[in-house]
Amino acid sequence: MSLFLLLITCGNEPPEEFYEGTPEDSTAIHALLNENAELLITNDMFYEPYIPLTMDQVAFFEEDSYFRGDSIIIKRHVDSCGLRLDSVNSVLGLLDFWFTKDTTCTVYLFDTFAVVSRLHIDVRITGYYDNPIVDTVTGETLGWRIGTGTIDSTAYDDSTDALGRGSRLIFFEPERDTSIDTTMTPNDTTIVIAEPMNWLLRRISYATYYFPEVGPDAPAIAQVTLTRQDDTEETIISSSYDTLYTGHCMNRFRAIDSLLEFADGETLTVEVTLGFGTVTADQAEFFTSCGGTERVELPVPTGGTGGIGQLVVSGTGITNLYFEVVTNGYYYYERPERDYIAQVWLVPVRINGGVQ
After folding, report:
1. How far is Cα 275 from Cα 256, in angstroms, rounded to an integer?
2. Which of 144, 225, 253, 282 could be 203's S-S partner, Cβ–Cβ 3.0 to 4.6 Å?
3. Which has the closest alpha carbon to 288: 274, 277, 299, 280?
């Protein structure tokens, strides 16, 4: 048996090994990242100063009775809010460099954000569970509903610590030697790499961040539609596995030279639409921002499936657009306390010149 295996394998070349990269490769890729530092920015989505927040007036509903774990329930009306970044931990090192068999490299950039959500409250209502639910036949008390409430219009501030996580990918490949034509050899798919090896930054992914993490109670953005002043539209969708799809998609790489482009000072109509999930548009607050500028609230129209409003893009070169959805139970409920639950999309775009 051993002799037979030796005979049939004799002369066969060993399988091609995966390219593992060298210290020189990592150094060259790090240098490219440093030259394109704007691609590494993720923390300019946080805007500490308060912005106005348009929310419905506070009211108690039948479902509020189900929260009873104490003798009272407290709801509030938030009229403005802000986000302060406490710290960001970006993990970018040799361990995040993934070299592949075809001699390419994907760099994973993992971000963890510690933020403080700041709230300004102008109305606070305390409801009391003093309305008995009585069985009409036996007279037995089955439970309690909110019967009375007190209103306090003394304004005050509040804040909540929150943690967000997400990742992005940046794709590199070496320059090819175009002087060598491999198409004349049938079935030859060899990648001819120029010598000495010269790494090129080719593509980047968009990013999705969750606060605090992915879960069934987190809002799920389905798509973002950006309408220019000439009424042309650009649509970014959540995902697509169609290999022929060439549009903008959150789960796909995008070539650096084919990012969405806008003019400095251009006004966009932004519509953020939620997908299928447990969080609906009436249960969420929508925001957008551009590269560290003021966050803009996107109100939800009556019966709408998302938020819509206007954003003025600004800057030069590559910057980020952010689209943010936060569950509004967090804003309304002070007791029982609700977590800060949000999803944020980061989309790098190129800003050129100015509006003519």
Report:
1. 28
2. 253
3. 299
